[in-house]
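Per reviewer request, we include the raw input and output of the structure prediction for the construct analysed in the revised manuscript.
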Amino acid sequence: MKTDEKLKRWQPCQGYCQMTGAASAFLSVAGSKVVMNCPRWCAVLAERELANAVKEYEQRLFCSEVLEPDLLYGVSEKLKQAIAEACAAPQNSLLAVLTSCSLSLIGDDIKGVCKNLQPGCPIIAVDAGGLSGEYWNGWSRAVIELLECSSLQPAAPEPSSVNLIGSSTCYPNWEGDMLELKRMLKSVGVKVNLCLLDNGTAWEDLKKTGKAELNVVINEELGLPVAEWLREKLQQKYIITDTPYGFSQSIEWLRKITAALDLDCNADYLLTEIKIFQDSIFDTFAALRDYDNNWQLKRMVISAGSSCARSLAQAAAHDLPLSEQCFVRINNSCKNAGEGNYYKWQYADDLPQLGIDEYQIFCGTDRERIEIGDIEKTIYFNLAMPAARVHINRETCAGINGWAYFMQSIFSQMKQFIYLKMTGRIFYKN
């Protein structure tokens, strides 16, 4: 297969357009509804990704179901009908109207249509055509529109308080990750004022954004535009930290935040917690050696958004016994992945073959898993969109508890692979 064909097959996050990102942000507000001004098939792509991320999305997501003749003669009437359907149910906190690529091209004035309506709640119209941006662009645009519409005003900051910016409900493990980050911040005396955006954020709570002393950007591709807008609007300072993975990264994350707040970082409790986990990990390594004395983790392959990939590669460098460097693949347009000896840029299709006693870790999407090769020796962990998994519990990969869970998953899969090898149920090729 030619190189360009390989890269085409490996293009991630197809279908994650700006409209999907904007819809996920608006639907994070409790009681909100979204009208997508687009063809039905376009709405289906968005619904596919929002189904497991948004509660009761069937009752909150509407479509104007534009047809080809409508693109010629105008879609105003169909849009009004869809808005009327969305407004039929009582107690709407917010109504957002979004356009897709095709509607952006014909230039229908959706803001003008919405301006003349009286839905009984705030209404926000956004041109979210995917040709002008990706999921991340739509999400940040939607959050800024939400804050603008909430009549946000400067407020006296509450000491030692932060806003966490860059939490999207479509990201795997987002809820568990936020709970873990809040837990760690509380242990060092930092209060989380608001998380932009939790699933079910109250419309009125958005007005509290200005009370934070510091904005912490935990996903650069999502949160940086929002943090920059808040700095200009409210003169709030911000720092970019990324979501921390790994033990050492978690402590460094806390130290960075407390330093920005002029606080002492007393992480003794968390360091004790880490020591307990590290002892358990060491014992598990030793036990796996008893099964197979020759096994080794050769490499980690990461295909994710820039913030996740950057942070996970750093965690792998410090907290994983890899015999090779990490292979990192950034799958969005925000490619500031930094520099360091733990980065090695290479496409997965070009990776060398694994030896008989070698294993690798792949962190990426369910769809990309089949492209990585050597699947019977690949330990898989989903840390990127799209995620076909259904998340029932609030599992986390971030922070201290998240890395313990990550290592537990690795060891469980490794033990299974070694057992199958020992029993002769799978045969590896060099």
